[in-house]
Amino acid sequence: MWPRLMANKWFGLRPKPGGDKFNSDMSETDDEPEPLEKSPRLRRGQSETLWTQCVDNYSYRIFVGTWNVGGKTPEETLDLDEWLNTKESSDIYVIGFQEIVPLKAGKVFGAENSRSADKWDTQIRKALNKNGAAAENASILRSATVPTSAEGEILLDSGHCTNNLDGIDMLKLDDINKWRQKRRYIRIASKQMVGIFITIWVKSEVRCHIRDLKVSSVGCGIMGCLGNKGSVSISMSLHETSFCFVCTHLASGEKESDGIRRNSDVAEILKRTCFPRDSTLDLPQTILGHDRIIWFGDLNYRLTIAESEAKSLIHQKDWNTLQLTDQLKLEKNPGGLFDGWQEGHIDFSPTYKYVANSDEYCGTQEKRRVPA
């Protein structure tokens, strides 16, 4: 196994079948999305009148978040509610992580381990389904004589039932299935490549409008092909609109040559990302072929000013002046790599690089960085 794995990674050989597979909560018993032929499609040249007759407009709230977790696995007590803004719930959550495993040689060159990804998915499931699902499932839980203790809820969430929990009767299988169907959010896709991990969750009532889920991973790390840097992208259709979510971890470093490497990573991701072809449908195979593209992650672009000047502007909360020195913003200028792309409004401090579990920037000589 080791020689074959190394050969595939080192020499860019065609991946084994399953490389485009992903994890999902959906099963064969779930409701299928609406068949494509039932949805009207418009062609160029059709009149504005026909367009207004055939096209329905839908509004959805999509949350996209990214977090470089520095090789740490989540504690069971970790509360993601504030980050995910669960009080103002979204219809779709797209969450990307970088460095969910330490980027050491054994992790980069060895077989992939999903334990950390599974733990992050568990924490996300707990946060998204904690409040709404508890209320929605109250009647089912009571009718199934389920204990209200935390232990009982955990047993249910993991899909197990027992007749040895403080004398409580065993749950009926159909009661458990009803409870599962009542889950507020379900995971439609998650995919890991070494330390890069993307996971997508949707409200149960939205799931039937999503189809054509596909994934594509591109390694840009060691030797230009390993997965310690690169991207994991997910393509999907929501009603008649195609979406592409690109979770990336680009080359690090503050030197001018490092900026060139980051741009090279982006160019490689755009060039090499290819979603599996569907022989019956004309679906986008490249990133730029989609109607809506959201690019996020640890892009590693830096501020091109001295550390003292950067911290002074941060203290003044002068975000506009800071952004004038942002390498990514420069790449959005005409002729730049991200020319034509739009970025959300920035009104917060740079998120790199903090002392762990604090709001203080790294100050020791070996870890000191210009905030970015």
The gyration radius over C-alpha positions equals 23 Å
* Strand percentage: 15-25%
Number of helices: 13
Describe the global form: globular
Total strands: 8
Mean pLDDT: 79
How would you classify the helix and strand content by structural class?
A: alpha/beta
Uncertain residue ranges: 1-7, 9-18, 35-46, 132-171
Provide the helix percentage. 25-40%
Looking across the biggest beta sheet, what order are the strands in?
1-2-4-3
**SSE pattern, N- to C-terminal:** HHEHEHHHHHHEEEEEHEHHH
CA distance, first residue to last residue: 41 Å
Largest beta-sheet details: 4 strands, mixed
InterPro entries: Endo/exonu/phosph_ase_sf, IP5P_plant, IPPc
GO molecular function: inositol-polyphosphate 5-phosphatase activity; phosphatidylinositol-3,4,5-trisphosphate 5-phosphatase activity; phosphatidylinositol-4,5-bisphosphate 5-phosphatase activity
Family: Belongs to the inositol polyphosphate 5-phosphatase family.
Keywords: Hydrolase
